């Protein structure tokens, strides 16, 4: 292959091969090849004339809540629902200068318009060093009017397939297992970066959620703080017991809200579900993140997760928009108490109806639910039973 990129190759679990290189502006790109992939070992060089990477965004603290708000103004210029011949996540062609130079199975790369990063206290690819980095969790927890910090961190795009349309649920079991291996690899690598406090893989699916690209993909955010949602969880654990999440799982496993169960994982509609469609998927063993899953847990997760997602799509005659959020333990706190889990939520409450967050939910975080969790679980069990096992 002419103009072949210089690659570092690593063999991962389940026969997955990882190949590492860089894009024209210095961003990292990783190819994760399926076991037995038909792709060769070489990959093309990214020869695009790209602009320098943007300056790192800035965070401002809301003193009334303590939350840190990132201002990433470059994200205003993102591509919106391109056609197949202009898909920025498809492999590059002579007419489409996309983000991925070569054909791939799974590809992961640094986002060109990130909410966090790209600088991590050092000059990378023409980006100046972070001028006002975070100074640890105690610094972030302090309150003050007008406090700012540089949004150090990292945002990565995970392309599930080179195809223009689809989702995680439309992949094969083999491909799902490759993606899980990629999530585990990136979780470990991002957790080791300086200044990172939490790593969050997720998939936004559907225009009702605000998706701007139809290409099957997800993202990974590496935050410079522990997210507000996780802070609430840590507080609940502190006020109850260190094994709170194990207790929750045992409570749910004996309920009529279970929708899918394996040897290592259980999926259930939670007792106090907020959304019309809300499912959690939790490992039976205490595991803080993807990197800590063993081979048996990863192997079972691939087909089980596909069953769940295809069941969600079988609820109605058209695909369901959702957020598939993989909550993981923070990097430096709560590793022994916060168990990783999926929280899949959708605002779809009927074939042609969505739940909108209006006054009470949006302004006060005081929720009213229209569907009982037990009813939602029964509907989802029926939908899962109607599909063919992946």
Automatic annotation (TrEMBL):
Keyword Cell membrane recorded: no
Domain Galactose-1-phosphate uridyl transferase C-terminal: 253-383
Molecular function via GO: UDP-glucose:hexose-1-phosphate uridylyltransferase activity; zinc ion binding
Catalytic activity field: alpha-D-galactose 1-phosphate + UDP-alpha-D-glucose = alpha-D-glucose 1-phosphate + UDP-alpha-D-galactose
GO cellular component, one term: cytoplasm
GO BP term, example: galactose catabolic process via UDP-galactose, Leloir pathway
Recorded metabolic or biological pathway in which this protein acts: Carbohydrate metabolism; galactose metabolism
Occurrences of domain Galactose-1-phosphate uridyl transferase N-terminal (ranges): 73-226
Region (Disordered): 34-55
Family annotation (Gene3D superfamilies): HIT-like
UniProt organism field: Microbacterium esteraromaticum
Designated name of the protein: Galactose-1-phosphate uridylyltransferase
Transmembrane segments: none
PROSITE patterns per UniProt: GAL_P_UDP_TRANSF_I (PS00117)
Family indicated by similarity: Belongs to the galactose-1-phosphate uridylyltransferase type 1 family.
Entries under InterPro entries matching the protein: GalP_UDPtransf1 (IPR001937), GalP_UDPtransf1_His-AS (IPR019779), GalP_Utransf_C (IPR005850), GalP_Utransf_N (IPR005849), HIT-like_sf (IPR036265)
UniProt biased composition (Basic and acidic residues): 43-55
Active-site residues annotated for this sequence: 217
């Amino acid at each position: 292959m002419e103009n072949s990129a210089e690659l570092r190759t690593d063999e991962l679990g389940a026969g997955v091969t990882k190949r590492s290189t860089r894009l024209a502006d210095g961003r990292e790109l990783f190819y994760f090849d399926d076991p037995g992939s038909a792709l060769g070992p070489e990959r093309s060089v990214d020869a695009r004339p790209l602009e320098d990477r943007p300056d790192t965004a800035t965070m401002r603290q809301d003193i009334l809540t303590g939350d840190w708000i990132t201002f990433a103004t470059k994200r205003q210029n993102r591509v919106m629902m391109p056609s197949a011949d202009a898909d920025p996540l498809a492999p590059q062609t002579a007419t489409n200068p996309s983000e991925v130079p070569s054909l791939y199975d799974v590809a992961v790369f640094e986002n060109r318009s990130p909410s966090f990063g790209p600088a991590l206290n050092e000059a990378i690819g023409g980006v100046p060093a972070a001028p006002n980095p975070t100074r640890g969790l105690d610094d972030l927890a302090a309150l003050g009017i007008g406090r700012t910090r540089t949004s150090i961190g990292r945002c990565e795009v995970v392309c599930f397939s080179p195809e223009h349309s689809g989702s995680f649920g439309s992949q094969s079991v083999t491909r799902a297992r490759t993606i899980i291996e990629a999530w585990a690899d990136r979780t470990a690598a991002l957790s080791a970066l300086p200044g990172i406090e939490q790593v969050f893989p997720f998939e936004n699916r559907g225009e009702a959620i605000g998706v701007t690209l139809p290409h099957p993909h997800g993202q990974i955010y590496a935050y410079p703080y522990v997210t507000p949602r996780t802070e609430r969880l840590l507080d609940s654990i502190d006020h109850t017991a260190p094994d709170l999440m194990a207790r929750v799982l045992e409570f749910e496993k004996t309920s009529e809200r279970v929708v899918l169960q394996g040897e290592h994982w259980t999926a259930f509609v939670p007792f106090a579900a907020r959304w019309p469609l809300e499912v959690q998927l939790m490992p039976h063993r205490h595991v803080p993140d993807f990197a800590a899953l063993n081979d048996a847990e990863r192997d079972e997760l691939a087909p089980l997760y596909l069953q769940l997602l295809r069941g969600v799509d079988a609820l109605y005659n058209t695909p369901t928009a959702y957020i598939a959020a993989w909550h993981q333990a923070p990097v430096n706190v709560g590793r022994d108490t916060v168990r990783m889990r999926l929280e899949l939520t959708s605002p779809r409450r009927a074939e042609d109806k969505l739940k909108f967050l209006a006054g009470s939910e949006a302004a006060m975080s005081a929720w009213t639910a229209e569907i009982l969790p037990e009813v939602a679980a029964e509907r989802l069990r029926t939908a899962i039973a109607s599909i063919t096992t992946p």
